[in-house]
Structure formats: structure tokens, C-alpha cells
Amino acid sequence: STAMGGVLFIDEAYSLVQGAGNDYGKEAIEILLKKMEDNRGDFVVIVAGYTVPMERFLESNPGLRSRFDWVLHFDDFSVEDLHQISLDFFKKEELTPDEEATAFLAQYLRSLYENRDAHFGNGRTVRKIVEEAVKNQHLRMASLSATERTPQAIQTLTMADLEEFKNQKLDIKGKIGFSRG
């Protein structure tokens, strides 16, 4: 009832119908359907999630699909988009990848994209890579002497900060795994 006059956003809505004996999810959908019918026009409901599980979600109850006026599909970002997103994230952290780091990042993102599966994290994957690289860069800066921590060094991301990603291997399903050695 707190969504009246507003928007109810349910991310990963398909989780309401996944799992054996998910009575709570089924009950939640039935309540949602009743509220959507009884209070039509009083609030907006947006459900979101990966394409295939969302199709199963919409088919899980005969009244669901007809209650949603629009279905929007968002394609994955392109490799170029992912690379630009990474550079934008680094810029917010006041870091600029050097030439070698930029080239590696572009190649690494291409590899992830070409081996992606239905659960590819898209922009979220890039954010996690950037967060890890920033952490690595900060740790590297902390290990330097004060004289070595020049303003340029502090603002530069190098291959040393991305080194851990060189050791990650992609299996045929596109999952990321770590190799030893």
C-alpha cells in the first residue's frame, strides 16, 4: 500500500516463482495481481530481470502477462560500451589507465563479452573489475615511499593493478575461474 501514487519496482521478479514449494512467492504474486486490478491506475509496477527467467515468471500465473502493458528488452552493452563504461568509472576515481592497461582492459572486456552467457553481468561486471583494480592501485600506492607517490603515479592505473585478471581463465561456458600458478 505504500506504493500508491508511486512506483513499485521488483528486481529479479522471477525469484518469486523459482524453487520447489515457493508458496510465499506464489502468494505474493496473487496479492500483487489483486492490488494491480483493484487499484488500477493508482500506482506503477515494474518487474525486471534476465530475459528467459522473466518469460517463465510471466507464464507462471495466467493473469500476469495481461497486467503488464509493456515489455522492454535491453540488449547487452557492446564491447566498446563496456570499455567506455570502465574508463568513466576510472575517471570518477580520478584514475587514468596508462596505454598498456587500456589495451589490456579492452582485450579482457572483449574476451568476457565474446564468452558471455545468459547471466552475463554487463555493466555490473565492469564495475566489479574497476573496483578490484582501484583497490589494487591503492594498495600499490600504499607500498610506495612518499617520494615515489607522485601526483602522476597516484592518478595512473597500470598493468600491475590489472595483473590478477591475466590469471583468470574463461571456460567454454564463459564463467570466470582462477588458475593456480
Q: Which helices and strands appear, and what pairs or packs with what?
A:
Layout: E1 7-11, H1 23-38, E2 44-48, H2 51-59, H3 64-67, H4 79-92, E3 96-97, H5 99-114, H6 123-142, H7 151-154, E4 156-157, H8 159-166, E5 168-170, E6 176-178
Parallel strand pairs: 1-2, 3-4
Antiparallel strand pairs: 5-6
Helix pairs in contact: 4-5, 4-6, 5-8
List keywords for this structure.
elongated; mainly alpha; disordered C terminus; two-stranded parallel ribbon; 181 residues
Written account of the structure:
The protein is mainly alpha-helical. Helix content is 50%, strand content 11%. It has helices at 23-38, 51-59, 64-67, 79-92, 99-114, 123-142, 151-154, 159-166, and strands at residues 7-11, 44-48, 96-97, 156-157, 168-170, 176-178. The radius of gyration is 22 Å and the shape is elongated. The strands form 3 sheets. The protein has a two-stranded parallel ribbon with strand order 1-2. A two-stranded parallel sheet has the order 3-4.
User: Order of strands side by side in the largest beta sheet?
Assistant: 1-2
Total strand segments: 6
Share of residues in helices: 40-55%
Low-confidence stretches: 170-181
Instruction: Please provide the ordered H/E string of secondary-structure elements.
Output: EHEHHHEHHHEHEE
Biggest β-sheet strands, sense, barrel: 2 strands, parallel
